[in-house]
Design goal:
Shape: globular
Number of helices: 5
Largest sheet: 7 strands, mixed
Oligomer: single chain
Strand order of the largest sheet: 3-2-1-4-5-7-6
Order of helices and strands: HHEHEEEHEHEE
Radius of gyration: 22 Å
Structural class: alpha/beta
Length: 214
Amino acid sequence: KMDDDDDDIPQLSSHTLAALQEFYLEQQQREGMKTSQGFNQYSIGSIEEDWQLSQFWYSDETASCLANEVVVAAGRGGRIACVSAPSVYQKLKEQDGKDFSVCILEYDRRFSVYGEEFIFYDYNHPLNLPENLLPHSFDIVIADPPYLSEECLKKTAETIKYLTKGKILLCTGAIMEEQAAKHLGVKICKFIPKHSRNLANEFRCYVNYASGLD
């Protein structure tokens, strides 16, 4: 006969249990939102930033401003490439129906939910790109290299120069101004980009064309 005494089994306090249930409920509600038809997979925050991948999303206002800038710069029927700039890509997709096309080059494979527009990209292999991604086939490239190092910028610059017909919008730290000019011939803009979480490093935008960011 089994012992009926359950005293040895650790029991959660009612307070802890309630907190745990609340956590799971919130998690289920978040997942429910994502799977419901009303959820917009392109909205900023639909994929949460991963600091281990050095991801820091722009604020909603900054992402909108940069998205509008590249649409104007690309022109009617223009092609836009977002290199390591997913929050701008998401803002562009919110403008569904506008006369442009866009693709996202990104290391984080969670963005493969965007289908054929997603291209896996590792800046360590800057020209390891699909054959159908033809050289100089984008009217503008917006790029945000994941790390503030000359090596990262130099390799990302190879990708940018391969993709663009000419126009470049680079987002990186203010400390990279000299290297940005050296590797991409871009100049700093007056516009100050903001992130959804404050970064320790001052962040700036750089362009090589007459932009609306001045």
